[in-house]
Amino acid sequence: MTRAREQQICCEDTPYDHCISRVVRKAFLCGFDPTSQQNFEHRRQWIIDRLALLAEVFCVDICAYAIMSNHYHLVLYIDKERVDSLTNLEVIERWRKIYTGPEVIQRFIDGKEMSPELNTLVMDTVEKWRGRLEDISWFMRCLNEHLARKANVEDNCKGRFWEGRFKSQALLDEQALLTCMTYVELNPIRANMARTPEKSEFTSIKQRIEDNNKASQQDKKAAKTSAIKLRVFVEKGHLMANRIPYNYEEYLTLVD
Q1: Cα dihedral: 19, 24, 29, 33 (round 10)
Q2: 5 in Cβ contact with 168 (< 8 Å)
Q3: In this model, does residue 225 exceed pLDDT 80?
Q4: For residues 216, 222, 225 and 226, what is the CA-based torsion angle, rounded to 10 degrees?
Q5: 3-class state of residue 34 by DSSP
Q6: Which of 148, 127, 146, 187 is nearest to 53 (CA)?
Q7: Are 192 and 16 in contact (CB under 8 A)?
Q8: CATH value of 10-81+134-255 in 3.30.70.1290, 3.30.450.20, 3.40.720.10, 3.10.200.10
């Protein structure tokens, strides 16, 4: 029996989730469509840019991603501790990067005098937004709606772009997390889109390798900053908090 999304995702018990979205019918999300003879390769950058923005807005970390021709994979982490630590103004600042919100919010930011009823409205709105900042459903909604609108404008059409709601699977332990992350990383190789992780475009493993190479070369001026801020791995001498519970070098070996 199908369960409601809020029953499938519980950030207290399973903060890590694997999410997948697939386009409807035989439409192409990215890449070259042999049926229509159109090239949609540029749409991959749409996803990267939107993910980069949403990673700044939401208290949801991106652990792994792979952008394929007609679907994409994400491994996400809900940072409950971070969202609880945000001040009301920080919540407002984050959410208004993607949505304006009611006019009363601007009055609150400007420090204008308001009635108790309006103050209550502001506090209720902020708490509603705070809840959304840790909500994967809202994260995916803000990603997929944006992409669908842009694609429909480009295709000069209306109607559904995605085949349905995104699919999600909770990752219950460290083994499940690592298995899922490597599965996502290796998707382009299984699909014969690349021969090695280093050559698999628009994947988190390629981004991590490039970021690590840039850091080791200490050439920050010449290096192009990666668009998406990824959740980092545990390193020697660091605590486990706010990190993927695995060593980066060992993870590369696992992927290989």
Answers
A1: 140
A2: yes
A3: no
A4: -70
A5: coil
A6: 146
A7: no
A8: 3.30.70.1290
**What is the CB neighbour count within 10 angstroms for residue 29?**
23
- Evaluate whether 62 touches 228 at the Cβ level (below 8 Å): yes
Show the tokens assigned to 199. Answer: 């050559």
Find tokens 């486990």 and name the residue: 240
Q: What phi and psi values does residue 131 have, to the nearest 5 degrees? A: -65, -35
Distance CA 140, CA 46 (A): 14
More confident residue, 115 or 226: 115
List pLDDT tens digits, range 148-202: 999 999 888 888 889 889 999 999 999 999 999 999 999 999 988 889 999 899 9
Q: Helices (H) and strands (E) in the chain — how many of each?
A: 11, 8
Q: What is the pTM of this model?
A: 0.87
34 is written with which tokens? 């042999």
Structure tokens at 97: 């990067």
The answer to whether the CB of 72 falls within 8 A of the CB of 187 is no
The domain locations on the chain are 10-81+134-255, 88-132
- Residues belonging to the chain: 256
Q: What are phi and psi of 77, to 5 degrees?
A: -125, 125
C-alpha span between 193 and 113 (Å, rounded): 59
Question: Which residue matches tokens 């990752």?
Answer: 171
